[in-house]
Design brief:
By secondary structure, the chain is α/β, with parallel strands linked by helices. Among the domains are: 1-151, ANL, N-terminal domain (Rossmann fold); 419-511, GMP Synthetase, Chain A, domain 3 (2-Layer Sandwich). Helices cover 30% and strands 25% of the residues. Strands 2-1-10-9-11-12-13-14-15 form a nine-stranded mixed sheet. Helix 7 crosses helix 8 (207-218) and helix 10 (252-260) crosses helix 11 (284-293). The longest helix has 17 residues, at 31-47. The termini are far apart.
Length: 515
């Protein structure tokens, strides 16, 4: 029985020692080298009392994204504690807020981040620099003794997400959730030693959990793609080909970079045969471009929040989808249950929109140090009064279509009221995205003027489209009260660090009169 993810580190060293495990632009490790590095670090952490054995304490990590950062994560887990990735681009004050919440006296960093770590940690935090730590001595007896006491309900990591009040929320996930989730990924998509996954997402973002732990489980290879390449699509394609990447799990914005400039027309991907995406809505028109150029590849839309490890439902594209048809989020993953409930916490009727709730082993443990928020988000199943059973309420609005597929409608907190009607902004965006020449669009409500605003970009950087032409297409699909009152062209839309549309920044820019 596997009761912690570290069993795979040992298995991979024994069964695939020379196989490529992790690589970035500067460093690459085989599985034997990973095991040696991780266990050597864990030995140092324990011997120098950087981590107290089996204390299940948070250990914040402030490092540049790299294979060494991943090794630090796993080394922390080897000590019977859990790692907390800190975004190196995050404002210092926000970092301090996270460290204060963790009440941690330890901060791990690398030389590049040392100055910032000192600014964040102050006098009360002991800072340890990865580059200065010994990794060449392994006390197998000591680390095996610690590992033997780790059980599957012990926390593995905490990822901080934004909170509606401005205070970050730390989502805790344990070994059991990651074991269950990674097993589903490997079995569903056929990952194995030949899998070479090109990592796009930051390591503090929940999508990275699929990258790290499915590759750890199957003894495949993880290639960290340099971030600047996502602004240079031709060089990006060449990098994927040079590294024989055959599997992608990216946010749609990253995939749309390639489709927007029609890069695959001239630069084919030589090895990629699996394209998974999550994190935001994938415009169907952009997906159809990928399918037209790579029809034999597997495409899958994955859906879920950080609070359930990463993903709870999925849809493997198995039919033609119209450009104006939303990509389904499909059906539940193995060992995941979903409920769609109305405002009275009753099951919705056929075709009715309701909030999506999750249950099962993918569920996280709650928010670190915040019982109030945890109890608001993780609730007793209202349909079950016989025994304790937690649900996670996602805040996502969905419905089930005639094919019994779950369709994402929008965020409960993104539902607006306009002209007396309740409107899902996602529905407007879906219709807008289907218009020829449109690349991406973001809609929001100007509350003061009670006007729906749409800001869009065009394919291939074409000039803006006549508003009359846009309205003509929207009028075919949307009722009058849902048609945007203000339509603005931009040559680009800002993205956040995770590669998603930065809706907050876009709305703030508009309200300041910068559009």
């Amino acid at each position: 029985m596997v009761n912690n993810v570290l069993e795979f580190v040992t298995d991979n060293r024994n069964n695939n020692p020379t196989g490529l495990a992790l690589a970035d632009k500067n460093t690459s490790y085989t599985w034997k080298e990973v095991a040696d590095k991780v266990q050597g670090l864990a030995t140092t952490f324990l011997e120098q009392r950087i981590c107290t054995a089996n204390s299940n304490s948070p250990i914040p990590v402030l490092m540049k994204k790299s294979v060494n950062e991943i090794c630090v994560f796993w080394a922390v887990a080897y000590t019977g504690n859990f790692y907390v990735p800190i975004d190196e681009k995050m404002p210092v004050e926000r970092m301090r807020t996270i460290l204060d919440a963790l009440e941690s006296e330890t901060l791990l960093c690398d030389l590049e981040m040392l100055e910032k770590a000192q600014m964040v940690g102050g006098d009360c935090t002991k800072i340890y620099v990865f580059d200065e730590l010994k990794t060449d001595v392994i006390d197998e007896g000591m680390i095996d003794s610690v590992k033997a006491r780790i059980i599957d309900t012990d926390p593995l990591y905490t990822l901080f997400t934004s909170g509606s009040t401005g205070t970050p929320k730390g989502v805790i996930c344990n070994h059991r959730s990651v074991l269950s989730y990674s097993q589903w990924v490997v079995e569903t998509f056929g990952f194995n030693r030949t899998t070479v996954l090109g990592n796009q997402t930051p390591l503090y973002f929940s999508m990275s959990i699929l990258d790290l732990y499915s590759i750890l489980r199957c003894a495949g290879s993880l290639i960290i793609i340099p971030k600047p390449l996502f602004m240079q699509p031709v060089k990006l394609i060449n990098y994927l080909n040079d590294n024989r990447v055959n599997t992608l799990y990216w946010v749609p914005s990253a995939l749309c970079l390639i489709s927007k400039f029609r890069v695959l027309d001239k630069c084919p991907l030589d090895y990629v045969n699996k394209i998974l995406f999550a994190g935001e809505v994938m415009p169907t028109k952009q997906l159809n471009y990928w399918i037209s150029k790579m029809p034999d590849s597997l495409y899958a839309n994955l859906f879920g929040p950080t609070e359930i490890t990463d993903i709870g439902t999925y849809y493997i594209v198995n039919r033609e989808l119209r450009d104006d048809e939303p990509v389904p989020i499909g059906s539940p993953c193995a060992n995941v249950g979903v409920l769609i409930l109305n405002d009275d916490l009753k099951e919705v009727q056929d075709g009715e929109v309701g909030e999506l709730f999750f249950r099962g082993t993918f569920l996280g443990m709650g928010y670190f140090g915040d019982a109030k928020k945890t109890n608001e988000a993780y609730i007793q199943n209202p349909l079950n009064t016989k025994y304790p059973e937690l649900l996670y309420r996602s805040g996502d609005l969905v419905r089930v279509n005639e094919r019994n597929e779950i369709i994402y409608v929008g965020r409960k907190d993104a539902q607006i009221k306009h002209m007396g009607y309740r409107i899902e902004l996602g529905e407007i965006e879906s219709s807008f995205n289907a218009i020829a020449g449109i690349d991406r669009v973001c809609c929001f409500l100007d509350d003061e003027k009670d006007k729906i605003v749409a800001i869009y970009t065009t394919v291939d950087g074409e000039e803006e489209i006549a508003i009359a032409a846009i309205l003509k297409e929207l009028e075919k699909k949307l009722p009058k009260y849902m048609i945007p009152n203000i339509i603005i062209y931009r040559n680009q839309i800002p993205l956040n660090a995770n590669g998603k549309i930065n809706r907050k920044l876009l709305k703030e820019s508009y309200l300041k009169g910068n559009d």
